[in-house]
């Protein structure tokens, strides 16, 4: 339970940092809540991939750097999907 809470806190910070690193265009999520939620998702992705590859033990979450990288990747994917969705609407 503590590991999940820690991952959420780190993901929140990682989302904010990732948004500063990758501000994006108008079609990407610019809201504070959406950015932090995507940061939390990025932290969970980084934790999952780190545990699968053996970088982290089963009950340990990803660190801040890995979470920021995960958040940037999630923001990029989300921006790409949003961009495609808005350009295909007639």
UniProtKB/TrEMBL annotation:
<feature type="transmembrane region" description="Helical">
    <location>
        <begin position="6"/>
        <end position="22"/>
    </location>
</feature>
<dbReference type="Pfam" id="PF04226">
    <property type="entry name" value="Transgly_assoc"/>
</dbReference>
<keyword id="KW-0812">Transmembrane</keyword>
<dbReference type="GO" id="GO:0005886">
    <property type="term" value="C:plasma membrane"/>
</dbReference>
<keyword id="KW-1003">Cell membrane</keyword>
<dbReference type="InterPro" id="IPR007341">
    <property type="entry name" value="Transgly_assoc"/>
</dbReference>
<comment type="similarity">
    <text>Belongs to the UPF0410 family.</text>
</comment>
<feature type="transmembrane region" description="Helical">
    <location>
        <begin position="34"/>
        <end position="56"/>
    </location>
</feature>
<keyword id="KW-0472">Membrane</keyword>
<keyword id="KW-1133">Transmembrane helix</keyword>
<feature type="transmembrane region" description="Helical">
    <location>
        <begin position="62"/>
        <end position="81"/>
    </location>
</feature>
<protein>
    <submittedName>
        <fullName>Membrane protein</fullName>
    </submittedName>
</protein>
């Amino acid at each position: 339970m503590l590991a999940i809470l820690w991952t959420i806190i780190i993901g929140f910070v990682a989302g904010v940092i990732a948004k500063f690193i990758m501000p994006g265009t108008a079609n990407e999520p610019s809201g504070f809540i959406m950015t932090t939620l995507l940061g939390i998702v990025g932290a969970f992705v980084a934790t999952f991939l780190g545990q699968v590859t053996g970088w982290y033990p089963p009950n340990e979450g990803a660190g801040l750097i890995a979470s920021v990288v995960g958040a940037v990747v999630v923001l990029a994917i989300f921006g790409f999907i949003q961009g495609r969705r808005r350009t295909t609407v007639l």
